[in-house]
Amino acid sequence: MDPRVVENIYLLVIVTLVSVLQNVFFAQKVERECKSHHSHTSAFERVSCANRNCMDAYPTFLAVMWCAGLCLSQAPAAFAGIIYLLVRQQYFVGYLGQTSQSTPGYLFGKRIISFLFLMCIVGIFNYLLVRYYGSDYKDYVETITKAASALLLIP
Amino acid sequence: MDPRVVENIYLLVIVTLVSVLQNVFFAQKVERECKSHHSHTSAFERVSCANRNCMDAYPTFLAVMWCAGLCLSQAPAAFAGIIYLLVRQQYFVGYLGQTSQSTPGYLFGKRIISFLFLMCIVGIFNYLLVRYYGSDYKDYVETITKAASALLLIP
Amino acid sequence: MDPRVVENIYLLVIVTLVSVLQNVFFAQKVERECKSHHSHTSAFERVSCANRNCMDAYPTFLAVMWCAGLCLSQAPAAFAGIIYLLVRQQYFVGYLGQTSQSTPGYLFGKRIISFLFLMCIVGIFNYLLVRYYGSDYKDYVETITKAASALLLIP
Q1: Could you give the 3-state DSSP secondary structure of residue C82?
Q2: Phi, psi of B136 (to 5 degrees)
């Protein structure tokens, strides 16, 4: 592949690789729990459930992040992806907590998925504007998006 | 990313976004059922099973749709994707029905996946023909594909 | 899409199609077991568990294979993908074996995922070298990668 293609996606690839590392970490947790204890214990069910919830949301996250990165710009999308991975780590660790009341819900990272979703819509809207009207707001939009992605850091 | 890339994928991105919205809708159904009732009831198991079956097939669907859109042409692939999402909605709602006899099987949308699969094969075959023989049937193939995608509407 | 894009991805698309066929094969196994026997038998749980483990790892595999193919070169990535599919088939069949002691673990194909992961890192590293120093080691790296991918055949 020529370098111009890699230039536009390498940040997304790095985030994808980090998410793969995290997946492997989750899977090893499941495997260790499965081997050390007998199955059907409470701890095994907890790890297995946390892993399954994370894996259920994984293709959605990948699809939205790559679409946002391809349609608009890759730096804010990759940044939001990193934040999502941190939230997922926190969710997974929180799921393994002691008290059964502390189990978080099925969904997590809603704000980040919404942000990436908005980026996709803005990117497609901008493309349609360029195609039918010829004015390109992409530079403004990218600047605003980069500034807005910093808002994700606010807890 | 320059607009020429977005031009070739924006319909696929739109279908992906719609599918993400549907995923979030499914996940919220699961979460609401999980919170309103206690776990391990019949309704919760039903929603959870329907959601898991849909999520199992989701990466396969995304991969086939994007390959078909990239290899051949995006309009029929996106159209088939929309039909698939309608079928999935119907499957999910049908799974939540009252009688336990009415639960549909594990697989759904076989016809649409097969259509997208055929599109991929035709696209690659066409590329190999162009490469080794130099004749380009792509225009004919695209016209036929667009006409054939209308056949998916027949129930 | 113009042929130059298809040229760089057609091997990856073929491997993706083969993996989709394998997914459909797994899903049909689950559906047949679900219909022929009543649910909650040992055989059904075994097939269902094998299928779920394979599906859990599927998005990770697809993401790593496509990243490796896009960042470095597609032939070794597609070759490693084929090997992964063979390992997955073996894992699935092994999971259905008679004795309950023979169930393999949760993870499989670690070596191939690691190889694809390394390919991604080398590709990004090479891109950064080209960008900041201007020397292109891609040809050497591709040759080495193609030779190294043959090592995956060693059991």
Answers
A1: helix
A2: -110, 110
Q: Which H or E element spans position A2? A: none
Chain C residues 19-58 with a CB less than 8 Å from chain B? 19-20, 23-24, 27-28, 30-31, 34-35, 51-52, 55, 58
> For residue C12, which of C56, C76, C58, C57 has the smallest C-alpha distance?
C76
Count of residues for chain A? 155
Report ipTM for this prediction.
0.84
Q: For residues B86, B89, B95 and B97, what is the CA-based torsion angle, rounded to 10 degrees?
A: -100
Shortest CB distance from B6 goes to which of A64, A71, A105?
Answer: A71
Q: Are B4 and A130 in contact (CB under 8 A)?
A: no
Task: Give dist(CA B77, CA B120) in Å, integer.
Answer: 10
Q: What's the pLDDT at A3?
A: 67
Q: Compute the nearest-CA separation of B124 from chain C (Å).
A: 7
pLDDT digits (tens, 9 = 90+) for C1-54: 566 778 888 899 999 999 999 999 998 888 887 777 655 667 778 888 888 888
Give the span between the Cα atoms of A141 and A73, in whole angstroms: 10
Distance (Å, whole) CA A140 – CA B75 = 30
Task: Tell me the CA end-to-end span of chain B in Å, nearest whole number.
Answer: 40
- Number of other residues whose CB lies within 10 A of the CB of residue C115: 23
CA distances to A48, A63, B70, C58 from C64, in Å: 23, 14, 19, 10
Asked if C112 and C83 count as a contact pair (C-beta separation under 8 A), the reply is yes
A126-146: average pLDDT: 80
Task: Decide: C11 and C65 in contact? Cβ < 8 Å.
Answer: no
Buried b (16+ CB within 10 A) or exposed e, A74-88: bebbbbbbbbbbebb
The Cβ of residue B5 has, within 10 Å, a number of other Cβ atoms equal to 15
Q: Is A111 exposed, middle or buried (0-12, 13-18, 19+ CB in 10 A)?
A: middle
pTM over 0.80, yes/no: yes
CA dist C91 and C76 (Å) reads 22
Q: Which residue has the higher pLDDT, A19 or B48?
A: A19
